[in-house]
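Figure 6 in text form: structure in, sequence out.
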């Protein structure tokens, strides 16, 4: 970069208060001879005044010489939109509007919680994102690509990128825990191998790693129907991870669990979010869990988005707006 100079009114010669110019000119990238001054001579009031007067011109010169320079920001300061919902609508037969023009964005690595009364559209929203329901209006964008109406060939690939766990665990009870987790790899395994259960050693290793991640690797060879509800939900989470998703949708994952087990399952979802950098969209009922685990909240009422922001902003007034005047907040210890 060309060294900016400040011209003094006394002599008309260029000078820079922090540098010396050994060869009678400024450093222009091709000439050596500019070095930082280490022995600053006493500055007279006149020279200080000249520096102050000419400083704007020096800064302007620096700006001109810096044109075209790209400044890179740290990755965590960027707000990349991984998922965008645009005016999403879903109408069922009988003129039932489950979603009405819902719009919001989700950033990479975010833990977003969706709240609202039963029937407010929370589950429908997640099922539209995963295409278990087809939207009747609006757009769903994944990394800017429209995935609202994927072709049949694209649908299978999409569901591997956007995995889902449900309130009901949907495990095969007579199969082992490990076998249930391996079912998550069916989308990447051939039909014959899937029927015969011929999974590779690498897939088995990965399944055990995910079981270890959710704290039940020691249950790998036990029948799934012998596990508790919380343990079965953790098996379902490990099975979803076998799809190698970038987004995990959790549809009321703790609503059928006791309060103590709720925190265990939510702790593992938070761990997955942090350690694997998987974006999580989770439907929840209890605000205690929302405030503890959510980074951001979206609230639905009668299919309409009525709140989007920090969970700490949901006070009693907002609680009544979201859930209604007659509802009461239930606390989970």
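Output sequence:
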């Amino acid at each position: 970069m060309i060294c900016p100079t400040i011209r003094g009114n006394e002599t008309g010669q260029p000078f820079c208060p922090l540098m010396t110019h050994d060869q009678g000119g400024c450093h222009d990238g091709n000439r050596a001879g500019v070095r930082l001054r280490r022995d600053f001579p006493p500055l007279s009031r006149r020279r200080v005044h000249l520096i102050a007067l000419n400083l704007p011109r020096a800064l302007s010169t620096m700006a001109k010489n810096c044109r075209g320079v790209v400044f890179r920001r740290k990755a965590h300061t960027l707000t990349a939109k991984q998922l965008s919902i645009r005016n999403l609508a879903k109408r069922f037969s009988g003129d039932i509007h489950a979603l009405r023009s819902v719009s919001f964005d989700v950033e990479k690595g975010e833990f977003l919680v969706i709240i609202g009364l039963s029937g407010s559209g929370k589950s429908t929203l997640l099922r539209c994102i995963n295409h278990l329901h087809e939207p009747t209006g609006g757009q769903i964008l994944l990394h800017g690509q429209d995935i609202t109406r994927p072709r049949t060939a694209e649908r299978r690939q999409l569901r591997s990128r956007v995995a889902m766990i449900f309130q009901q665990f949907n495990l095969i009870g007579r199969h082992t825990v490990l076998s249930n987790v391996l079912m998550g790899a069916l989308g990447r395994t051939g039909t014959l191998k899937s029927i015969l259960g011929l999974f590779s050693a690498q897939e088995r290793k990965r399944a055990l790693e995910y079981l270890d991640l959710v704290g039940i690797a020691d249950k790998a060879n036990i029948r799934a129907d012998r596990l508790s509800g919380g343990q079965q939900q953790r098996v379902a989470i490990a099975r979803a991870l076998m799809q190698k998703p970038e987004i995990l949708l959790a549809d009321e994952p703790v609503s059928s669990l006791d309060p103590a087990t709720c925190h265990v399952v939510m702790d593992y979802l938070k761990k997955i979010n942090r350690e694997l950098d998987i974006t999580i969209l989770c439907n929840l009922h209890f605000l205690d869990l929302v405030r503890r685990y959510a980074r951001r909240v979206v609230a639905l009422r009668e299919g309409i988005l009525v709140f989007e922001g920090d969970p700490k902003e949901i006070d009693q007034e907002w609680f009544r707006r979201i859930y209604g005047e007659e509802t009461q907040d239930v606390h989970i210890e």
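Caption detail: Residues 320 and 326 are 8 Å apart (CA to CA).
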